[in-house]
Amino acid sequence: MKNQNREVWVIGGQRIPFVKSQTIYDGIGQQEILTQALRALVTKYGLERQKVGEVVAGAVLKHPRDFSLVREAVLGSGLDPHTPAFDLQKACGTGLSAAAMIANEISIGQIDVGIAGGSDTNSEPPLTAKRELVVRLMNLQRAKSFGQKLGAAFALMKPSLFWPQIPAVKEARTGLSMGESCELMVREWGITREAQDQWAYESHHKASIAYEAGFFDDMMVEYKGIKKDGILRADTTVEKLGKLRPAFANDGKGTLTAGNSTPLSDGASAVLLSTPEYAKSKNWTGLARVVDYQSAAVDYVGGEGLLMAPTYAVSELLKRNNLKLQDFDFYEIHEAFAGQVLCTLKAWESEKYCQEKLGVSQALGSIDRAKINVKGSSLAVGHPFAATGGRIVHTLAKLLHEKGKGRGLISICTAGGQGVAMILEAI
Fold first, then answer.
1. How far is it, in rounded angstroms, from Cα 381 to Cα 391?
2. Which of 8, 31, 144, 241: CA 20 to 30 A from 233?
3. What pLDDT score was predicted for residue 182?
């Protein structure tokens, strides 16, 4: 996307409140919550019955019936039904990758305006059948003679076959959950429990102040009777967080807890991007411009930290744009876990890591922590996997617009040992 032909603006976004899974949105499917976010965006920007160049969004935990999730959500959003759409899935990086795809299409002149987004719900998980049950059912379907059918039917008379399988957020090649993988990372990098709890506290504290100041008022639409994220704990303290038990390790050395890790969350978000010319024709005020985007991956099976890929993605962005890590006014680093953020920061400060892994001559250096996640982040507001990217893009764009100058950096880790990053600048 570097050397883009046309400038791309982030116009704004909308989302429904993020809530803890299996609570307020219990039983509500992906299509409905994504439709709600898109509909709110359409209403806010006067796009009813208008054709948009493309809508790109997705979900991570997707039910088979949602094979065309985004197109169906578009048809219920109020947009012109001639608006094309497609699904994208890149774990926690889905929303940001969707925004990058829309920005690319705008940049090279394929479209003038597009929408990116994502949704996820763990309240209606896509339960699956055991492989053995599927095989036996297929055998029954293929049976031709009475004897074959009878034999296939008897093979199904095993109650345990019918116990559904609940999707687990584990890496197929290691069998480790994201939390278990992050435990290995914080031990490798020497990140303490106290530092993680402090980071989590600050995320809640900053988000609480932002709510009180009305920062989120125009970014979120009421849904199911709530107007505020359900994860936020304004009254939490480091002392309260310190009393929680480890959540991913039973060896007496665990430091990741329910308090310094993001809870399973439900929610949806959408962001609107366009050319400056299209925005002006609609009397829209652009919030920020998209500068560049980068994706990266690590060899987590071979021993690299599962959530360390953003260190690579950011390094590549810096090199391509002739920037230093310190050349930003705001940093939005997704908080899958407080420990993951702290490992990332420590890696950038390590000359050995930067030389051996990132291929640069010296450490990228430290970041002024007062500029990181200044309105709180995923630990405080929640993390519906595919919806997080849209939330972060809109948040950073608004921060830059309010400041009136400067640039911001987005960094998001994902399952599968991948990471995505993006640079935005004030208009």
1. 10
2. 31
3. 98
Lowest average pLDDT, out of 146-155, 201-210, 233-242, 374-383, goes to 146-155
Domain span including residue 208: 178-215+291-426
> Is 57 a domain residue?
no
Residues identified as active-site: 92, 383, 413
The domain that contains 367 carries what CATH number? 3.40.47.10
* pLDDT tens for each residue of 326-351: 999 999 999 999 999 999 999 999 99
Structural domain count, the chain:
1
Residue 222 lies in a domain: no
Largest CA distance in the chain: 77
- Percentage above 70 pLDDT, the chain: 97
- The answer to whether residue 402 sits within a structural domain is yes
List the beta bridge partners of residue 56.
Answer: 86, 116
> Which one, of 30, 28, 35, 33, lies nearest residue 17 by Cα?
33
Which tens digits make up the pLDDT trace of 173-232? 999 999 999 999 999 999 999 999 999 999 999 999 999 999 999 999 999 999 999 999
Report the alpha-carbon distance of residue 249 to residue 6 in Å, rounded: 49
Both structure tokens of 244: 């929680």
**Residue 340 is assigned to a structural domain of this protein:** yes
The predicted model gives 29-35 an average pLDDT of 97
**CA dist., res. 191 & res. 260, Å (int):** 12
Q: Are strands 407-414 and 330-333 parallel, antiparallel or unpaired?
A: parallel
- Each residue of 44-56: pLDDT tens digit? 999 999 999 999 9
